[in-house]
Amino acid sequence: MNHFLDIHKTNPAELRTMIDQASAMKQARLTRPKGALDDDQPLAGRMVALIFEKPSTRTRVSFDVGVRQMGGQSMVLSGNDMQLGHGETIADTARVLSRYVDMIMIRTFDETVLMEMAEYASVPVINGLTDRTHPCQIMADILTYEEHRGPIKGKKVVWAGDGNNVCASFLHAAGQFGFDLTFTGPAQLDPEDEFVGLARKAGSKIVIERDAHKAVEGADLVVADTWVSMHDSQSSKERRHNMLRGYQVNADLMSHAKPDALFMHCLPAHREEEVTSEVMDGPQSVIFDEAENRLHAQKAIMRWCLGA
Ligand code: CP
Ligand code: NVA
Fold it and tell me: Where does the Aspartate/ornithine carbamoyltransferase Asp/Orn-binding domain start and stop, copy by copy (predicted)?
């Protein structure tokens, strides 16, 4: 049994196997209706709990559909409607759920909730996003990049905007998959030093560049995310927008990257804020492939967790 908590905590060879398996599983069901079962049903007889303490469209639906395609059953639970949100400890919740289900996916605020769940659950726990990281998203992004452009190893990824949870998992992936990452954004929103250090230690070139135009020079992939994440207070919105306005990904910025650079965004996006519609809907954008690949990547992650 394996927990999938963070990309930097997972062996690179196993991460590679998951990406390759996700790609193969996607190919195997290209022409099938979404509700059709996979040929082999690796999750037959398995029950999966999907817990959400924050809103979600992609994570909720892709995990639910993925479990069903693999022959398992899933239940979507809102943290608020559980005793978890009303004083029962994480440890007790983990022990109880482990008596009913074969795997737990949780989207939560504080990372310590995820870690405590993993510590006390006797079944695999998957990180469906915390304030600090979003590893499933980046597994889908690696799959997407490689489908379009081949191996990501040695490529230059540019993160524009807030050095947030999604950026953190990109940094983790840089170290594990062997690509370089340039962060461009205001100093107040730099990614955590610890994560920058981890990626550098693993051999990746990590650059912090305040000038967005300089940052994207030679980029193979440009990535943006919302300027106000779910864990940020709404009262910080105006201040954050003011800090981040110069880091919008628009056609002018993309023209400074490599001509065949891709654009990614985990979604949901705020059109004309962190990215223009021209870029989102343009030929370099692969945002909906990323969304689709959440399904395929997570199916491989779930199989790895269960050894199925
Ligand atoms: N990208 C992502 O995790 O989307 P949701 O918040 O809709 O799950
Ligand atoms: N950084 C965003 C990602 C949403 C999928 C957030 O945490 O709200």
Answer: 153-304
Per-residue confidence at 87, pLDDT binned at 50, 70, 90? Answer: confident
Nearest CA to 243 among 269, 206, 212, 277?
212
- CA–centroid distance, residue 155 to ligand 1 (Å): 25
Contact between 229 and 164 under an 8 Å Cβ cutoff? The reply is yes
* Sheet with 47-52, side-by-side order of all strands: 73-78, 47-52, 103-107, 125-127
* Amino acid letter for position 25: M
Rounded to whole angstroms, the Cα distance separating 171 from 125 reads: 22
Task: Decide: pTM greater than 0.95.
Answer: yes
Residues annotated as catalytic (active site), given as ranges? 107, 134, 137, 225, 266, 294
The residue with tokens 């998959």 is 177
Tell whether ipTM is more than 0.90: yes
Strand partners, 249: 275
Provide, rounded to the nearest whole percent, the portion of the chain with pLDDT above 70. Answer: 100
> What are the extents of the domains in the chain?
7-133+293-306, 137-290
What confidence tens digit (pLDDT) does each residue in 106-161 have? 999 999 999 999 999 999 999 999 999 999 999 999 999 999 999 999 999 999 99
The CATH number for 137-290, chosen from 3.30.420.40, 3.90.120.10, 3.40.50.2000, 3.40.50.1370, is 3.40.50.1370
Structure tokens at 22: 């996700």
